[in-house]
Amino acid sequence: MKNSCLIILAFVGTLVSCKKSANTNTSPQYKSLTEAVYASGNIYPKNEYKLTANADGFLIKQTAFEGDAVGKNQLLFQLESASQEARLEASSNILRQSEANFSDNSPILDELEAQLRNARTKLANDSINFKRYKELYDRNATTRIEYERAELAYQTSKNDVSARRKAWLRTKNQLYVDLQNSKSNFKVNAREEDNYRIKSFEAGKLYEIYKKQGELVRRGEAVALVGDANEVYAQLAIDESDFVKVQIGQTVLVKIDVYKDKIFKAKVTKLYPKLNKADQTFRVDAEFVEEKPNAYYGMTIEANIVVSENPRVLTIPKNYLVGSDSVWIEENGDKKKIKITKGVENLDMVEVKAGLTEKSVLMLGN
């Protein structure tokens, strides 16, 4: 990746070429030298997320399409499940019946209340009858058997009223519990029904839809891709040998194929410490600082990350290097190979820290 001839530092004052110099001999010159790290990558929207299904079902309705702007919590897809619809309908019917059973006009409670009223009426009559027989018995005007029969009828009626009142309270409490359980069950099924409605989390643009209407969608399966169309960033891949030079805040010059010769400025915002073993690169994210490209998902880009800028350094063309640290020079008419101390470099030029002067005459190697 870093050996590519494509570099865009010409736009900041350093013209780079992959061609050799026409002259075979040259001398070192003081120039401004910018060192940059080459990177390639893609443009992605910020806050990107995938919409996934929370239940199994067939995609029966779609309210938005690729390229559409969507709002927050907007319904985008509707799934259908016959079993879930049946459960929801059953829980709804049970809830309506429970509400009727616990209402003021509840037929169950009305029947128990009528029985309780009849028992209280009988108790009142038996109480009067018992008092009358007690007075007669106290005056020896009736037999003990008649008195005890009246007393037994009174106690039986009294116990019957108590039992029917407890039955009414017990039934009312049970109907209340049944109502609460029915409400809970309906809410659970209603929430489960929401799992069949796929909504957006945040506002953005619908970039891709993975399913077609009529297709079966499994729980956890991705249905669509959404991202922020107003905010994009560059996701770059840096060769592992150059990664140590990159720091947060460094300037990034970005070239996008669809924009031809236009250069966008960005800055490094995040470094990822994990090496991608497949291509031996590290990931670096950069945000645009001035004009931003349109939010076309995955646009291919190439970039240079400016790691140092040197206004005046002694430089030589890179093609005069022999190996990594030697050059051929002309000395007293002879060709001599010497070692130099290099500084920063780009694809075209190399800084010479020691070993040469402006008067040195460089020769191309054989």
Task: Describe this structure as you would to a colleague.
This protein is 28% helix and 38% strand. It has 366 residues and is an alpha+beta fold. It folds into two domains: 1-47 and 232-366, Efflux pump adaptor protein, beta barrel domain (Elongation Factor Tu (Ef-tu), domain 3), CATH 2.40.30.170; 83-194. The chain has a six-stranded antiparallel β-barrel. It has a four-stranded antiparallel sheet with strand order 1-18-14-15, with no helix packed on it. Mean pLDDT is 87; it is low at 1-22.
Write the element-wise H/E pattern from the N-terminal end onward: EEEEEHHHEEEEEEEEEEEEE
* Topology, number of strands: 18
Q: What's the overall geometry? A: rod-shaped
CATH architecture annotation name of the largest domain? Beta Barrel
For the record, the CATH class of the largest domain is Mainly Beta
Largest sheet: 6 strands, antiparallel, barrel
Q: Could you say what the CATH topology of the largest domain is called? A: Elongation Factor Tu (Ef-tu), domain 3
Uncertain spans, ≥5 residues at pLDDT below 50? 1-22
Radius of gyration: 45 Å
Number of helices: 3
CATH superfamily of the largest domain: Efflux pump adaptor protein, beta barrel domain
How many domains make up the 3D coordinates? 2
Helix/strand class:
alpha+beta
Mean pLDDT rating: 87
Distance between the termini: 27 Å
Helix content: 25-40%
Strand content: 35-45%
Strands of the widest sheet, in order across it, are 2-9-12-11-10-13
